[in-house]
Amino acid sequence: MWEYEYSVETTASREELWRHWTDMAAWPSWNEGIVAIEVDGPFGVGTTFTMTPPEGDKVKLRISEIVPGELFADEADGGDFVVRTVHSLTPVADGRTLITYRTEITGPLADEIGPAIGPEITGDFPDVLAALVKLAES
User: InterPro entries this protein is in (predicted)?
Assistant: First the structure.
């Protein structure tokens, strides 16, 4: 298994952050790692979506878990490996919110594939979370 986690605190409420997450069509407006997104249904478990990054091939994912207002997870199934990213919101002191993105690559090829693609997948997490915080705090 390969894993990576990045977190940041914000004064934005969980409700405000959740609103931006559930508006998937707007993700490209604040996430520079997505130039286009095609969503095949409402924000819900089982919904699939295809993201187009600035460089590279389209990535098809499926929402695999939702705890409203707290977290959602998406997965990309590569056959011999699965990339799962959990996006979570945790209340912390003084009304602040901790935002965490955690990616795990599992499956028979995870130890081989993880170090090759994991850093590429997660490399923009600091920028993405900074953009989300800026949007949610404004």
Answer: Polyketide_cyclase/dehydratase (IPR019587), START-like_dom_sf (IPR023393)
